[in-house]
Amino acid sequence: MTINDERKKGMKLKKLITMITLIGMVSMMTACGFDSGSSVDTGNADNTTEDTATDDAADNTTAADDTATDDDAQDSTEATEQSSLHEVYTLTERNALSGLISPDYTDRTDIDKALPTEKKTDLTIGLSMGQTGSEFFTAMIDACQEACDKYGYKLVWTNADGNISTQSADVESMITSGVDAIILNPMDVTASEADVQAAVEAGIPVIGTGVDYPESVPVITSILANNYFGGWETGVYLGDFFKDQHIKAGALLGMMGHTIDESRINGMIAGIIYKRAEQTGNPFASVEDAYLEANEMFAQLRSSGSLSSDKWDFEIVAQGEGSWSIDGGLAASEDIIVGHPDINLMMCSCDPMGQGAITAIEGAGLEPGKDVYVACAADGGKEIFKLLEDGKMQVTGYNCPYLNGSAPVDLLHKIFEEDFDATNLPAATDLPTGCITKENWKDYYDENMEYCKPIEFEFKSIDQLRTERS
Amino acid sequence: MSKVKTETNFDLKKFIVKNNAIMIFVLLVVVASCMSSNFLTVNNIMNVVRQQVPYALVAIGAMLVMMTGGIDLSSGAVLGGGSCVIALFLQKLQITSISGLLVGLLITVIIGAIFGALSGFLVAYCKIAAFIATLAVMTIAQGAAYIATNGQPVRLKAGTAAADAMIKFGKGKFLGVPLGVYVALVFILVFLFIVNKTAYGRLLIACGSNEVSVRLSGINVKRYKLTAYIIAGALSSLAGTFVTCRAASATPTTTGGGYELDAIAAVVIGGASLDGGKASVLNTIIGVFIMAIIGNIMNLMSIAAYPQKVVKGVIIIAAVLLQKVGSKSQGA
């Protein structure tokens, strides 16, 4: 065989590979298109799985088990009955449920959290940030620094820049340098559990911030704006606002798969359908039933890129990824509006993408707040108040970075200097949530602050929370 | 007769092979048009071309660098830096006049060129691998942007001539076409001329295809390489100003936005060789639009986010494989 023959043979092979790849490419696009098209096109004509199940149900109440149609769900229902805990709290797939904590608090007294045994005043606190690439994180770090300055503590902070290995190295350095306590804003909750364990074993207490850890992880507590309920509150508001109106929405997430963004939009969907159920005179038997049904709807959005429900007169016709930025939200919104010029709502997981959506709506010759409403699940940045006042943005969720930054330092101060009993705090301490609208924005506004102003809140032990619940 | 027929077939094949980037582009447009009735609407086309203005500028710079056999990973960070520089110039220095804005734009471009010069110097004169040198410059540019802005977004506040001009430019159209597209067209034409019709362009290609011969013929290869990086830096920084115009704000997070990888992918799809010595401005722009259409059509079709990434990757692989087959066929 000559070199030319070999070359020709190689060429044929490459052509074959190329053709297969091209055919695969076109097939994938076609398959995705048909799949997606059917989910949108048939949405109005045919009920989705949960709709069918609910219609078939004899019970007049919109209950969670009406929606559970497959074997897995039935298994889960059996498990729920056994434990008397609602099914939504037993789901193993919880990426879109960040902040939805089981009310059946497990006592955490026996978990070693390396709490100090004696008072100390001149603390050195390590703050490990998973990332810092936004105004929100900058405000959070500044607030942490201010709180440390107030108490005379030294703050050492690091930025892992989105890299979980870097964050582990950062925490290890803090342990080696012997800080008195660590505030951990993890890039990845699961990956950072080992970091928490290592710090506690070295006698250094850890407070999480920004995300919720499982109850067994030895953090004193994790302080966070509840992502799910931030979305829920805006969803309830939207349910009221769109009473008797069809909702045809586009959804903007910073990134699909990101637990914070998924939880916010999931919560928003839950709030909308919860309110709609009330309006039809057929309310959910419990809020958990709404959470569960919304979670199934969100799973449909994640897998097919759209969702449609005749039952709730509600559809999300497209989703986009806006990288949490104005220009990202703008580009994603432009595509959504071109594809679906008749949408009447943009559901955004954060303010900057909402701003981008407003620009895109105006660019398409539509009027935000009239043709298309814009709703965000967070955060309440300074520039948003003007948009709320002008009616260009309908609502945003309260999410104060100052509290995220200062509350962990306040808690450390209480523990180290005021004998505060932190042995049995919940794994997640929720910061206040709220709904900032055109009507109430002045309650949250402070002209000297870049974000909505802090709201007073207190740390509650598991015993206190149980008492309140009972 | 049969001889003539054979020659005709051969020409068609040659045409397809030579213009495979265009063929992929046309194929994608046809597929996209069939998939979504909204794809070929004026609104959508204008959105796509407007969104691609910064990518086109970055890709032209990336192409020049790749022509010399290098690669520029810093272009996305320099773009983000440029975006912040112009916004800081207007807001922090309180520049309000149009003349001040023009000075600001010039400074922004110069700063981008300086970053490019640093990359070029490290590659051409210090003999550091382009991948590493530009990676280092990328992190420097990112850090500088965060320091300059203190990690905060900088918003253009309407009400001054300079800020209003930026915002209007970002939203403005002439004859229905976004203003930024005209500027990008000018740059495309200029670089078409430079690459195809000037000795400088031919020598840049020569530096990539056979550096030793060029050096032995008395040409200062280092200087040519340096200029490619300088131009790439300047173009990236200028592209950043378009991002600021569109969003009416700048944020240091843009420095990690991945513009550089999309630009490199577009250049490669456009037929450039990573080994240097081969690239085309027109094909690079077609590569930019191939990348854009892939994302656009999937958004229009409401395809879920996860499959989008897979489809995009497969299309890029298919396009590059086609390029390779085409170039081998030409060589055979």
SSE pattern of chain B, N- to C-terminal: HHHHHHHEHEEHHHHEHHH
**Overall pLDDT confidence of chain B:** 88
How many E-type strands of chain B?
A: 4
Rg result of chain B? 21 Å
Strand order in space, largest sheet of chain A: 2-1-3-4-5-12
| Biggest beta sheet attributes of chain B | 2 strands, antiparallel
Please report which band the strand proportion of chain B falls in: under 5%, 5-15%, 15-25%, 25-35%, 35-45% or over 45%. under 5%
Runs of chain B with pLDDT <50, length 5+?
A: 1-6
Query: What CATH architecture of the domain at 227-397 in chain A would you give?
Result: 3-Layer(aba) Sandwich
Task: Summarize the topology.
The complex is a heterodimer of chains A (470) and B (332).
Chain A: H1 3-41, H2 49-56, H3 64-67, H4 71-83, H5 87-90, E1 124-129, H6 135-151, E2 154-159, H7 164-177, E3 181-185, H8 189-201, E4 206-209, E5 222-225, H9 227-241, E6 247-253, H10 259-279, H11 287-304, E7 307-309, E8 314-321, H12 326-339, E9 345-348, H13 351-363, E10 373-376, H14 382-390, E11 395-397, H15 401-417, E12 428-431, E13 435-437, H16 462-469
Parallel strand pairs in A: 1-2, 1-3, 3-4, 4-5, 5-12, 6-8, 6-9, 9-10
Antiparallel strand pairs in A: 7-8, 11-13
Helix pairs in contact in A: 6-15, 7-8, 9-10, 10-11, 12-13
Chain B: H1 2-18, H2 20-35, H3 42-51, H4 53-67, H5 75-91, H6 98-125, H7 130-149, E1 154-155, H8 161-171, E2 173-174, E3 177-178, H9 179-197, H10 199-209, H11 211-216, H12 221-247, E4 249-250, H13 259-269, H14 281-300, H15 305-331
Antiparallel strand pairs in B: 1-4, 2-3
Helix pairs in contact in B: 1-15, 2-14, 4-9, 4-12, 4-13, 4-14, 5-6, 5-7, 5-12, 6-7, 6-8, 6-12, 8-12, 9-10, 10-12, 13-14, 14-15
